[in-house]
Amino acid sequence: MTAIQRLNPTPLLPGLALTLGLSLAALLLAQLPVPGLGIIGPLTLAMLLGIIAGHFTTAPIEQHSETGLQFSRHYLLRAGIILYGLRISFTDLQSAGLNALLIDLVIVVGILATAAWVGIRWLKLDARTAVLIGAGSAICGAAAVLASAPTIRARQQAVPVAIATVVLFGSAAMLLYPWLFTQEWVQALFQQGDVAFGRLVGATTHEVAQVTAIAATLPADAAHTAVVTKLMRVMLLVPVLLVLSQLFGRDDTQDTGTRKLPIPWFALVFMLLPLVNSYQLLPEAVLAALHQLDQLFLAMAMAALGFATRLSAIRAAGWKPMALGALLFVLLLVGGTAMTLLLS
C-alpha cells in the first residue's frame, strides 16, 4: 500500500465495508442458539465467511476491495492485538500465584519446542507453518496465530491451516474438561482441588473464549483460576513474539551479512495496556466498548484473511498439520496435568 493510499480513505472503503459486513454477520451468528456455532466462535466464523465470500466474489469486486482488505489484514489486526491487552490486569495475574506462571512458562516453551522439532524434523512441515500451529496451541489460539504470522512472515495460506487445528482441538478440550471434572478418579487425582483443576484448564486450553466456556461449568474458585491462568499465557505472547522476530529476522539478510531485527512494536504496546485495568484509568462502560471494538477489529482481520484463502490450499496442506495439532493437544493434556500436580 502506498503512502497516498494510506492518506486517502476512498480506496479503503470497499474492502473495509466488505470485512465489516462479514465480521458483523459472524458476531451475530455466534449469538444464535445453534449447536456448534458457540464452540467455533466469532473469529473463526468471520474467517469462514471470508473464505466463502472470496470464492464467490467476482474478480473486479475483489480488485476494487484489495486496498481495504490489506488494511484490515495489517492495521486492524495489530489494533485488535493491542486492545486485547485491556482484558488483563496485574491484580488478576497476582491472584493466580507464581505456580500458575511457572506452569504457563513450561507449557508455552514445551509446546513451541515440540511443534518446531516434530513439525520440521518428522512431519517435514515448513518451519513457519509448524511455528504457527505451535503458537496457536501454546499461547492463545487464533489471536496468537494472527500475531505470529506477520512476525515470522508466514505464508498467508498457512494461517487458516493453523487456526483449523485451534478450532478442532480447542473444541475437543471444551467437551473433555467438563466431563473429566465430574469423574471421581480425576477428583481423587487432584485431591478435590478445584483450584488446581482450574489451573490445568487455563494452562492447556487453546482460546480464551474456550476457557471461559469451560469455566462456566466449574465452581467459582476453579473458574476464576482458569481464566486468570489463561490470561497469564496471553501475556507470554509478547516475549514469544520478540524471540520469534529475532529468530526469523535473520532470514532477511543472510545474503548481505547484515542482521535485521523486525521488532513487533504492537506487541510491546499490548504489554502496557494491563496498566489501564490495574490503575482503573478508564470507566467500566468505556472498557466494555473497547472490548467490543477489539473483537470487531480481530473479526475484520480474520474475514480479510479468509477472503484471500482458497480451500485448495488448505486441502493441499494434507494431514500433517492436523497430526501435529493432535500431538500437541495430547501433550497439553498429559504434560499440563503432570505440571499442575507437581506445582500445586
TrEMBL record:
Pfam families: Cons_hypoth698 (PF03601). The chain crosses the membrane at residues 12-30, 37-55, 75-93, 100-123, 129-149, 161-180, 231-249, 261-281, 293-311, 323-343. Keywords: Cell membrane, Membrane, Transmembrane, Transmembrane helix. GO terms for cellular component: plasma membrane. It is a multi-pass membrane protein. The keyword Membrane applies. It is found in: Cell membrane. The keyword Cell membrane applies. Belongs to the UPF0324 family. PANTHER family: INNER MEMBRANE PROTEIN YEIH-RELATED (PTHR30106), UPF0324 INNER MEMBRANE PROTEIN YEIH (PTHR30106:SF2). This is Putative integral membrane protein (TIGR00698 family). It comes from Marinobacterium halophilum.
